What does this fold into?
Amino acid sequence: MWDISLSVRAPRKLRVLAKIALPARTMTPIPVPDSKTSYTRVAIGLHWLIAAAIIGSFAVGLYMVDLPLSPQKLRIYSWHKWAGVTIFLCVVLRLGWRLGHRPPELPAAMPAWQRSLAGATHVLLYLLMFAVPLSGWLMSSAKGFQTVWFGVLPLPDLLDKDKELGDLLLQLHMLLNFSMASLVFIHVGAALKHHFFDRDGVLARMIPFLGQSQRGEFR
Amino acid sequence: MKYRLLGPALAGALLSLAPGAQAIEFTQLQPGKSSLGFVSKQMNVPVEGSFKSFRSKLSFDPAKPAAAKAELEIDLASIDAGSKDADEEVASKDWFNTKTFPVAKFVSTSVKPLGGNRYEIAGKMSIKGRTQDLSTPVTVTQQGNSATFEGSLVLKRADYDIGGGVWADFGTVANEVQIKFRLVASASKAAAK
It folds into this structure.
């Protein structure tokens, strides 16, 4: 793995922002990520791609459920389902990549309970990244609306049409989504806490230029 | 009732023409065993639906297929279009306008044997005040005292002004709608050999 810190510098605006956001007394340099302390580029790319897709699909999902029936509603539902299938496949790729590429070590100073909590949050997030699209797919089947990926590739219906089961799966899909939203909230909160309070480089593992901006400013 | 008199005479005539054939005429629709379904494509996704309430007047004698007749009346309010939202939507003026046009009707004009147990039935289909010519192959399966008439055909919804307004674009709901029918009729009077 090459050291990207040599070739990329954060834009000036961001560096200025970082300076404003950080109180002077805590200005110990954030460790610069390298191949041992940073995720791989593929892992970083998949993380942010999936994050954006999940947040977008979640928002679309909230918006679309109460729409009155219209061609636009049918289109949005289809797009939401296509996005779900796509996210699922990206998560499969991501998990495969992760199994072959160990994530960077956590800071040595991190207490054991925080490590356990972080581990548990990540495991649950992975489970939900599979469970949310799966529950949507099953719900579609039970409601009698097959999922046809991009209008081209039909996914098999694992369940027969069953209105009550469909309504139950809708509840499950929502429950799983709100569980995921809560975990994402915790996940983001923890990342920000590591960056702004602990200043231990944990967030820079996933946003490499954060570490560099610190080096650029405070060396 | 006229068949009661006609039956034995017919059977006699048939015996000489086609030994083993049984003169039998199917006239009584069995609603519980019959079904009338359709498949529409929404965003290229096939969505199943059906009509729960329909009536048929028919007469079919396998020995005289050309004389067969069929009439089918469908109560459009009995639709199951796949979801509650859809059921309400298709009753609206853009779709079936069910209040003004509660019944769709098919009346046969001719029946032609296609060989084996297949026949082609032609007729006039009226939905929402529009009448179109229609023809479709039908497979007839005879089982004892009843016969099953099965087939499928494709209607174009625009031919009947079904789904106008915002729905007129075929990109979300396709113009072609596949109709699948399975009508079971029993014989009102089976003539002995």
